[in-house]
Structure formats: C-alpha cells, structure tokens
Specification:
19 strands, about 15% strand, eight-stranded parallel beta sheet, about 35% helix, Chitobiase, domain 2, elongated
C-alpha cells in the first residue's frame, strides 16, 4: 500500500470496491463538512455526483462517515478505515480522525483523484483493507517564514492543502522580522505602511549589498481570518510568531521610539543578527506589544503564541539607562535575566488571556515561567534535557542540521530528514512525553517565490510527516522511497515543483556550500 505517512496498523483484505456514478456518501451531522470535502475531492475528476445524505443507515455502495465513541483508544486524531466490496466505512472518535481517514482513502484511490477536472478512462477501484491508525506525535508542524519573503494567500492555502494530504496539523507562521512586518495591526498602521517594505534584498546571504529591487507585502486582517478559517476546516492550527525582543528592526523602523537609542532605522535589506531590539526598560514597549498581541489573539485562536526570543543581542541594553534602571529595580542579575523578565511579562499577559507563550530555546534561562513551551533548534542540549526531566518542560523539536528546510540537499538530504528522531536518546519513557512533536522550519532568505519554496520543502517535509505520524518501529527508508514515488505523482498533478529524487538524495558527500549563497529560483511554471 503506497500510503504516506504509513499507518500504525494495516491489513490487506480480499477483493475491492468499485466506485460508480451511483455511489453515495452517508454521513452523520457532525461530519457534514468532511463529507462535502470528500465529495469535492472525488466528484471533479470522476464526474460522479456522489450525493451526500445525512444519517447512519445500513446501505451498500456508499462511503460512510461517522463518529464512533468506542474508538477513543485511538485518540482525537485516530481513525478506523474499512474498505469492503460493498461499502467504505471511516469512523473515529472525533471529526479530525474522520478527516485523516479521508486522506488515507485519497491515497488508496487512483492518482487521478488529484485532478480538478474530469478525467476519462479511470477505473475508480479501491483495494479492500482494514486500517486502524493514530499519530505518534500531537505536534506535526511546518514553519513558513514570510518576514524575509512574502508569498501571499494563494501560496499559503496551497501549503495548507499539501499539509492536509500528509496529515500535518500545525502551521507555524513567522510573520515579523528585521526584513519585513507582514500582518496588519490596526492600532499601529505604520507597521505595514513602513515595516512591510524594504529597498532591496541581499545578493549573497552573508553580504550587505542588495539588488535594489523593492520587496513588500502584508496580510490584511480579513485575509488572516480567511486563512485561519481555511486551516481550521482542515484541522490545522496556525501558530503565529511575532518576534520579540530581537529580529524587530521592521517594527523599529516604523516606531523608532520603541528602541533603546531612538533610531532612525530602516527595514533591513540584508540578513543576519542586528543589535537594535525592543527596549526592555520602557513601559511604552510593553504597552505596544500588548496592544499588538490583543489584535493577534483576536485573529488566531491558537492556544500558543510564538514570540521567537532567539538571537537577541544585549549590546543596546547594556548601554541603555532605561534597561539598566529596570535591572536595578527588578533586582536582576544582568541583561540575560532582563530577557527572562521580558519573556515572563509577555507570558503573564498571554496567560491572563488564556494563552501560552512559546519561543525558541534561547528563552530557556533560569527563572523562565513554568508554562512556556520551548522550540529547540540548536545549542543548549544539556539545559534542554534538564528542563524536560526536572521542570517537565513541553518541547517541540526542530534540530538545526536535521530539520531546517532552507539547507541545501547536499547538507540535509532526504535520508537525513527521514531518519531524524525527535525524542533525544537520553530521555527515559516517562520523560519522552514532554516532546510534543516535531516541526520542520523554512527560513526564506533564499526563497523568493513559490517554485523555490516547493523545491526546498518537498520531498523532505513528506519525510517529516511520516516521522510525526508513523510508529518508530514501522519506519523504513527504503520502503518510504518506494511509496514516495507514487506520492510525487500526486504532487505533479497539484503543480508542486519539488526536488527530483536524484537531487533530494544526492550521491555526493554532504557539503556546507549550499547555505552560503542565494540559489537561483527554480525554473518552470507554477499555475
């Protein structure tokens, strides 16, 4: 069975079911949206009407969708799929599970199901099978950075559609950066009037010379609501990232009074780590950030709000009288403790609104508030293990050399992506539960368009999807490669410009050079 991610339990049965123009979809009330999604998926290429009926009556030649409380052992996202010669039954304890069962059925059907137009001559047969399935991890994520390059609504919605196919459930949306602020905040219009535009983009990744071509773009709040709703229908949570205190130059260019020095500043045209960050000594900074977060919370129902917290140089804080006064008044031991104060204050505000703060592992310092979720990317592994064992800290794993999709395939080939194990070997069974899951980030310094995005992401994100869902003892890279070829045929039909397998798994020794220059965009048409 060419299914990705591979199910937890699968039994091939004798026979097959042949879908016909008389096939219907039988659903309970809770799964009406799932039924409409399935109908939309199958009716366009097959031409079959696939009439949707509500109810749970016994019937033949139907695809039956229903909730089944007796399957609670499979968890919120688990499902049971049975294909018999006379009917297909997808049942689960919740609607998310039914939706994931539909994605498995989608891969059992002929590859032409991915077409959005009628396809003639297709035999719409499904092999008889019994599948009981559930994910290994609750957090199966992809991070899209649009601070460096704005992609736009259509690309984000296609990203969500591709995540759906692979049973991914978290889009971590990086919306603010030194190089651009990408979300409308009505109380602070300069964030998009000024902060969403830059004069050009670096010609080389580590250089300061730029191409002189203006780059701009941001999402209105109405567009954000539309995208969040689109994701929620597909059981994908969007976790926004609003960077603080570092990587904030676009915001400081818009409102320089939020800095330690008062500016002036320009939105960054090159990449790197900048010394000017939000001032931690000014109350006006916290007022500004709380106002921004109020609008973010209204747009995103996610229980987690990511604040970054990484790569925040302390140079300006050391020379800032306001920051030094804050350190004295709060009895802090220095600038690193001041960042903990900053993080905890934002965390307390989010907590008062019923949300939780999340940040990169640089926020993991002594005194960090207990409920903060850490996303691990690099450095401080021993401190991370200590936080898990002693503090029972919840963690999402995104280890730099195994998970960063902006790397070249020579550095991070498909096999390395597939073999990444997010649970550290040092953790015992009792502590492993602190690992919420894994996430593959795409930083977009080198991703100017959707074609390049597709190339960097696929097929490595597909490998991650299997790690996030499939039991560890059922993973097999050789078999994954075989199944992947069928999935790539589906991506062809979806217009995805993925990396060919001979490039995704190059025979050469891995090298570093691919991350030091901005590669040319992929050629080809993206419709």
């Amino acid at each position: 069975m060419d299914i990705i991610p591979f199910p937890a339990k699968i039994e091939r049965q004798a026979g097959e079911l042949n879908l016909t123009p008389e096939t219907g979809i039988l659903t309970d009330t809770a799964n009406r949206w799932n039924a409409d999604f399935l109908r939309g998926l199958l009716s366009a290429p097959s031409g079959f009407p696939l009439r949707v009926r509500t109810g749970d009556r016994a019937a033949k030649n139907v695809i039956r969708l229903r909730l089944e409380p007796g399957l609670e052992r499979l968890g919120r996202e688990g499902y049971r799929l049975e294909v018999r010669p006379d009917a297909i039954v997808i049942e689960a304890p919740g609607t998310a599970g039914v939706f994931y069962g539909i994605q498995t059925l989608r891969q059992l059907l002929p590859i032409e199901i991915e077409e959005r137009r009628p396809v003639s001559g297709v035999d719409w047969r499904v092999p008889c099978v019994l599948i009981e399935d559930k994910p290994r991890f609750a957090w199966r994520g992809f991070m899209l950075d649009e601070g460096r390059h704005f992609q736009g609504k259509e690309t984000v919605q296609l990203t969500l559609d591709l995540m759906t196919l692979q049973k991914l459930n978290v889009l971590h949306w990086h919306l603010t950066e030194d190089q651009g602020w990408r979300i409308e905040v009505k109380k602070y219009p300069k964030l998009t009037e000024v902060g969403s535009q830059r004069a050009g983009t670096s010609i080389t990744l580590l250089g300061k010379q730029h191409d002189g071509i203006p780059h701009s773009g941001f999402y209105t709040q109405d567009e954000i609501r539309e995208i969040v709703a689109y994701a929620a229908e597909r059981h994908i949570r969007i976790v926004p990232e609003i960077e603080m205190p570092g990587h904030s130059l676009a915001a400081l260019a818009s409102y320089p009074e939020l800095s330690c020095t008062g500016g002036p500043f320009k939105v960054a045209t090159h990449f790197g780590i900048f010394p000017d960050i939000y001032c931690a000594g000014k109350e006006t900074v916290f007022t500004f950030l709380q106002d921004v977060l109020d609008e973010i919370l209204e747009l995103f129902p996610s229980p987690y709000i990511h604040i970054g917290g990484d790569e925040a140089p302390k140079k300006r804080w050391k020379g800032c009288p306001d920051c030094q006064r804050r350190i004295r008044e709060e009895g802090l031991k220095g600038e690193h403790a001041l960042q903990v104060y900053f993080t905890n204050r934002i965390a307390a505000y989010l907590d008062s609104k019923g949300r939780h703060v999340m940040g990169w592992n640089e926020i993991l310092q002594d005194g960090l508030v207990k409920g903060a979720v850490v996303q691990f990317w690099a450095r401080g592994r021993e401190r991370l293990l200590e936080a898990i064992r002693i503090e029972k800290r919840a963690v999402v794993m995104s280890t730099y050399l195994d998970a960063y999709l902006d790397h070249s395939y020579s550095l991070m080939p498909l096999s390395r992506s597939y073999r990444y194990e997010p649970v550290p070997a040092e953790l015992g069974e009792n502590d492993a539960g602190s690992i919420l899951g894994l996430e593959f980030p795409l930083w977009s310094e080198c991703v100017p368009n959707r074609a390049r995005l597709d190339y960097q992401v696929y097929p490595r994100l597909t490998a991650m999807a299997e790690t996030g869902w499939t039991p560890k003892d059922k993973k097999d890279f050789k078999d994954f490669r075989r199944r992947l070829e069928k999935l790539l045929g589906r991506l062809d039909r979806l217009g995805v410009c993925y990396a060919p397998l001979n490039e995704a798994e190059p025979p050469k020794v891995r090298q570093w050079f691919g991350i030091f220059t901005i590669p040319q965009p992929q050629t080809g048409t993206v419709e």
